[in-house]
């Protein structure tokens, strides 16, 4: 259970603010105004602290509760600005469009790709096929993953396809994340970026129906993860 002990506002108010920020394209100052209009005077710095503190905890529980993903993945990375520099958000979806996993990295290289595939497989199981773009780093990361996979699991290697048009699904899926992050004009720290992105990705999974039942209120599903 996620604890809200010591908070000056009720759990429901905090969860509403966190959900609103990670689900909709608003700035912290705009959210401050929205909360004030609902009778909750809370400054934008406090809203930021709530997101950074609670979003990762909710995201951790979301990963455990999401529906199983399919064995065919589409993987790609997109750009996120942190402290004035571009970082890389590695993401993968299955052939249905469900989010498999995501990882923010300061570098875009084979080591980062290998870390992403390692954590994705640990969470979701090994895929049968992964579609990537023409990135040599992603290919190298997958090949290294196959070597380790063969030794430790003694299973068939992951089939690797480098076909750009087959990756349209993940490229389209990036748009929701970019629409939310665009208003931040860049994160102030890597940790804050990572924490916020976990919340945004969780809200995106709820929107896609990966958690809860079809037709459920999205905020209620989000709040239940904090129970």
Textual characterization of the structure:
- InterPro entries: DDE_dom (IPR032874), IS_Transposase (IPR052183), RNaseH-like_sf (IPR012337), RNaseH_sf (IPR036397), Transpos_IS6 (IPR047930).
- Residues 72-210 form the DDE domain.
- Involved in the transposition of the insertion sequence.
- Keywords: DNA recombination, DNA-binding, Transposition.
- This is IS6 family transposase.
- 52% of the residues lie in helices and 16% in strands.
- The protein has a five-stranded mixed β-sheet, sandwiched between helices.
- The protein has two domains: 11-66 and 188-224, no CATH class; 72-174, Ribonuclease H-like superfamily/Ribonuclease H (Nucleotidyltransferase, domain 5, 2-Layer Sandwich).
- It has helices spanning 11-23, 28-37, 44-65, 110-124, 136-153, 168-181, 190-207, 218-224; strands at residues 72-82, 85-94, 99-105, 129-132, 159-162.
- The model has no long low-confidence stretch (mean pLDDT 93).
- The longest helix is centred in the N-terminal third of the chain and has 22 residues, at 44-65.
- It starts with 10 loop residues before the first helix and ends with a helix.
- It contains eight helices and five strands.
- With 227 residues, the chain is of the alpha/beta class.
């Amino acid at each position: 259970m996620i604890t809200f002990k010591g908070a000056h506002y009720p759990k429901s108010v905090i969860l509403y603010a966190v959900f609103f920020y990670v689900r909709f394209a608003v700035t912290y100052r705009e959210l401050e105004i929205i909360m004030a209009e609902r009778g909750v005077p809370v400054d934008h710095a406090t809203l930021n602290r709530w997101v950074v503190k609670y979003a990762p905890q909710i995201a951790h529980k979301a990963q455990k509760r999401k529906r199983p993903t399919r064995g065919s993945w589409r993987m790609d990375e997109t750009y996120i600005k942190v402290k004035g520099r571009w970082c890389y958000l590695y993401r993968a979806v299955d052939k249905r469009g469900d989010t498999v996993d995501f990882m923010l990295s300061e570098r875009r290289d084979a080591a980062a790709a290998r870390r992403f595939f390692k954590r994705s497989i640990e969470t979701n199981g090994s895929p049968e096929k992964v579609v990537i773009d023409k990135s040599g780093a992603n290919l190298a990361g997958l090949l290294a993953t196959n070597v380790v996979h063969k030794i430790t699991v003694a299973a068939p290697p992951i089939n690797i396809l480098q076909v750009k048009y087959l990756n349209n699904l993940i490229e389209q899926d990036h748009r929701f994340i970019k629409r939310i992050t665009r208003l931040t004009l860049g994160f102030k720290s890597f940790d804050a970026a990572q924490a916020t992105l976990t919340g945004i990705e969780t809200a995106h999974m709820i929107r896609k129906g990966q958690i809860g039942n079809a037709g459920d209120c999205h905020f209620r599903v989000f709040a239940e993860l904090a129970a």
